[in-house]
From TrEMBL:
Belongs to the TRAFAC class OBG-HflX-like GTPase superfamily. HflX GTPase family. The gene is hflX. NCBIfam families: GTP_HflX. Residues 208-372 form the Hflx-type G domain. This is GTPase HflX. GTPase that associates with the 50S ribosomal subunit and may have a role during protein synthesis or ribosome biogenesis. Pfam families: GTP-bdg_M, GTP-bdg_N, MMR_HSR1.
């Protein structure tokens, strides 16, 4: 019996990469544009694209019709034909009209940096939350560009730029997409409520939250795995992990905290993506401490640190206490390592060195723990005593009559939080027994 099933094999994207450099970019940092194109190559390879060649153009301003100049578009067409490429990837974001014009002229699929990053996220998303966030970002990107998609919407080739919701939106109209965006936002609101509940529970229980943030491929997941022995995916590639992972970590003093690995940042991170992943990225906002993991072996370390700081500022997390971890020092030359600070809120580390991991734990403990306070608590208030043990580091305790005298180390933030929680018991007793004793 003859089978009616037809298997369609997607043609692997073979691409030429294109970047436009304007005078503004040149004045900022001459090498940033070159690095950005190099990063685009890594992004393309991560997405499964075969990169055949790269091109750049120095131009006074962006061409509203072609993005690049007409002459450069002709050069690009010749290069595409010469390499038998089926895709052109641009390092900057294109308008719908520019995509349509370039597709008609070059007769290949046109992808910009934003769409490429969204495609990688579509491949990486595994949890329901991650899938919702990626689809929301993709549809938000697509909606204003519907009229300019041209062959992207008519081709059945699938592949890069059409993964995730891409394969289901080929025949949708604006109304359908708007309805879907509204539906996804509602689903995401439920995720936000769920996360908020978890945060409130953590606050009430006195558990510290520490967030790992950093540029993509800085080594955050490796650090999480080495510190907590977590079974997390670690690979030397961009956005190797997308969905956040939280694990418990016991500090040297015995206190347990929650350590969370967040999604990696990248320069020109799509705004739609930042908006869609706000619920996830807010883990950094709600954290008691941020560990900024830096790839100290990267030639673009300073730029990468700046990008992370900008995203944290956009999220409103820039005022949270931070420790900067200059990771991968084992890959640095002695001269490079010497230039990195190793004092105060900066540490030079390798995630694979046990001694460095201990220093990280000591730094976290030092930052989270603070001054010593002594609380006098009635012995029958076992739940209050338990709370003090959870929130702070208990150094000493002794029984005096019907009371427990507990000496505990707390930072100012946790001291204020503990004071608020203890006040909720409305115990009608006053402060006494010396100026450094708190009587409940």
């Amino acid at each position: 019996m003859k089978s009616n099933v037809h298997i369609i094999e997607h043609e692997q994207p073979r691409a030429v990469l294109m970047s436009l450099i304007t005078p503004t970019q040149k004045r900022q940092e001459a090498f940033v544009a070159e690095y950005s194109l190099s990063e685009l190559v890594s992004l393309a390879e991560t997405a499964g694209v075969e990169v055949l060649a790269t091109m750049t153009q120095n131009k006074e301003s962006v061409d509203s019709k072609w993005f690049v100049g007409k002459g450069k578009a002709e050069e690009l067409k010749q290069l595409l034909e010469e390499h038998d490429a089926n895709t052109a990837i641009f390092d900057q974001e294109l308008s719908g009209a520019q995509v349509r014009n370039l597709e008609q002229y070059l007769d290949v699929k046109i992808i910009d940096r934003t769409q490429l990053i969204l495609d990688i996220f579509a491949q990486r998303a595994k949890t329901r939350e991650g899938i919702i966030q990626v689809e929301l970002a993709q549809l938000s990107y697509l909606l204003p560009r519907l009229s300019g998609q041209g062959k992207n919407l008519s081709r059945l080739g699938g592949g890069i730029g059409t993964r995730g919701p891409g394969e289901t939106k080929l025949e949708t109209d604006r109304r359908h997409i708007r309805d879907r965006i509204t539906e996804l936002k509602n689903q995401l609101q439920e995720v936000v409520k769920h996360r908020t509940l978890h945060r409130e529970r953590r606050k009430k229980s006195g558990v510290f939250q520490v967030a790992l943030v950093g540029y993509t491929n800085a080594g955050k997941s490796t650090l999480l795995r080495q510190l907590t022995h977590a079974d997390v995916y670690v690979e030397n590639q961009l956005f190797a992990t997308l969905d956040p992972t939280s694990r418990n970590l016991e500090l040297p003093g015995g206190k347990e905290i929650v350590l969370t690995d967040t999604v990696g940042f990248i320069q020109n991170l799509p705004h739609d993506l930042v908006a869609a992943f706000r619920a996830t990225l807010e883990e950094a906002c709600e954290a008691d401490l941020i560990l900024h993991v830096v790839d100290s072996a990267s030639d673009m370390m300073a730029t990468q640190m700046y990008v992370v700081d900008q995203v944290l500022q956009e999220l409103g997390a820039h005022q949270t206490e931070q420790i900067t971890l200059f990771n991968k020092v084992d890959l640095c030359s002695p001269e490079q390592e010497e230039m990195l600070s190793d004092k105060g809120e900066y540490l030079r580390i390798s995630a694979y060195r046990d001694g460095d991991l201990k220093r990280v734990c000591d730094a976290i403990e030092s930052k989270l723990m603070g001054d010593c306070k002594t609380f006098r608590i009635p012995a029958e208030k076992g739940d209050v005593i338990s709370l003090v043990y959870r929130v702070g580091e208990v150094l000493e305790n002794e029984v005096e009559g019907n009371d427990m005298l507990i000496q505990v180390r707390l930072n100012n933030k946790e001291y204020g939080k503990l004071g608020y929680l203890l006040a909720a018991y409305a115990l009608d007793q006053a402060y006494n027994e010396g100026e450094n004793s708190e009587h409940v």
